[in-house]
Amino acid sequence: MWIADKYINYVKEQTIAHPEESWGKILLGFRLNKFRMKVLPTKGISKGNQRLETMMMSFVADSLARPDSYVWGNIFAPCEIIQCFGLNTLSIECLACYFSGYHLEDFFIDHAQNAGIAPTLCSYHKTFVGAIDSGAVPVPEYAVTTSLSCDGNLNTFRYLEKKKGVPFTFLDVPYRDDPASVEYLAEQLKDFGNALAARFGGRFDAAALGQRLDIENQTRKALEEFFRLQSERYYPGELIHHLYLMMGMHLLIGTREFLDLIRFMIEDIKTYPKFDGKKILWVHLIPFYQETLQSYFNTNKKYQIIACDMSMDSMEAMDITKPFHALARKIIHNLYNGSYSNKAQMVGRLARKLQPDALIQFCHWGCKQSSGGSLLLKEKMQEMNIPMLILDGDGIDRRNSHDGQIRTRLEAFLEMLDEKETAEESEREEQIC
């Protein structure tokens, strides 16, 4: 791995010195990592997770190698419509994570802030804006974003349109869940499909969208089964695999390849032993780089994250006979849309299905809804008698996550879970006696 580390350091130095000349080096690193994952998969993790990380690295590397093959989006953009035109969706949040693999997030964030971007903007967005603004990353032909969850989406894409001339579609997602709201968003989705057809050629095929939603229904059902099995069996993986899974559920959902992967993981996990440790349900973003969290949740037989809510932020089957309305309902019903109390109820339903021993919510710095609503979720978990830990930090900017504080709080929480189990076992023994 020392060769990879040396290349990462080399790319970082070159990007800081000459950002406008660095794209080829960044892309080469992605391609080499894709090749490495195929021939030398990460040791100590399950075959399913090995395939997952290879798929996601290949998806990003192959897309970036062909600028005419993708559009930018936020994580909640309707990739199903984009796929109908043979295009991929590259989420700016996920791309920021990939740039972080070169430890470039601090340089890009500082570049964005020095250019006038507010320090309070989400660090995922600042990383991406800095990458584009510095000239390190080329721009695509088109982009799409939504108002869902993050109030920084529209401003970020407006800024990129103004600075780099990238035209984009903005999907205004209603808070209310009623027929008028569904119709309003469905019409926007139709217009988006027509805009893609006008820009990239061809005619939009609603039947093709229905077929993708059918695959999506199957994929979501399969993932629910996988999460159920992961709450029962030890399935070695790392923090970053939850990020990869979340990416797949938002960028590759609707593809046969991703459905086949989830089905493989279902069969693969059945070959692993029963899990007797503590089952953790994770809420919100995954700080995949954080050392303490890695030490406790990477291939650990004592503590296992069994699911992340962002991978199941929409749980309902869709009516494929009315694809635009079905997709509109899916987006409106997303647990990150509307009142935070709705999210608390949906996370509660997920917890009832998976029966975790505890829940951890990560409050990402700059994300107002995660911090502001965490107490509502904690109240819901108290009703269900599920212990909950709230961790503050940054999903991508290492400078905003203090390892010492996270370690102290996490270890105290896990110790409390262990003591609770010991006390419950003692009580059961006393009852037997």
TrEMBL record:
Keywords: Iron, Iron-sulfur, Metal-binding. Pfam families: HGD-D. GO terms for molecular function: hydro-lyase activity; iron-sulfur cluster binding. It comes from the Bacteria. Transmembrane segments: none annotated. The keyword Aminoacyl-tRNA synthetase does not apply. Belongs to the FldB/FldC dehydratase alpha/beta subunit family. This is Benzoyl-CoA reductase/2-hydroxyglutaryl-CoA dehydratase subunit BcrC/BadD/HgdB. It comes from Catenibacillus scindens.
